Amino acid sequence: MAKHVVGVVVGSAHRGSINQKVATALEKLADGQVRFKQIQIDDLPMFSQDLEGAVPESVERLRREVKGVDGLLFVTPEYNRSLPPLLTNAIAWASRPYGHNVWAGKPAAIMGASIGPIRTANAQAHLKTILGYLDVRLIGQPEVYIHFQPELVADDGTIADAGLRGVLEAKIAALAGWVAKLA
User: Fold this and answer.
1) Distance (Å, rounded) from C-alpha 9 to C-alpha 65?
2) Which pLDDT score, from 0 to 100, does residue 164 have?
3) Lowest model confidence (mean pLDDT) among 59-68, 72-81, 99-108, 147-156
4) Are 10 and 40 in contact (CB under 8 A)?
5) CA–CA gap between residue 175 and residue 6 (Å, rounded)
């Protein structure tokens, strides 16, 4: 049984999301090193300081869930060479109000998948900058930029490609070690 829980934040909410498929497949690869818990972000209202006085329940749930995990894994697509608005919105809500940033101090990792040839390199670079500012303790290696093809994830949710499976297993092992060290 895994000792530590890692919250998985997927930056895409659409049905058939390739990043959601990869995030779900990671659970099978974890092999007891960590337990993954999906953190829902698709029901959050658009961030506005006007709503900070009477915070919606979905935002309170997000904050509780982030506080309640030992580490984080961000799995994100790339939109317009940057982060998807869904993920940006979740980051804003959980970092506010000033002085109550629930991301701070959490060990974390980033990865992502895209059908595009540069994968999610720009999105991950922008996310690293934002999370660094928010005092998230990012692990740098191994980096994972998946050029997604439908045959990479089998119908049963397993990673069909041996090379990708090895990279993802290394990422999970590195994250599990990082979380154990900092949690």
Assistant:
1) 11
2) 92
3) 147-156
4) no
5) 9
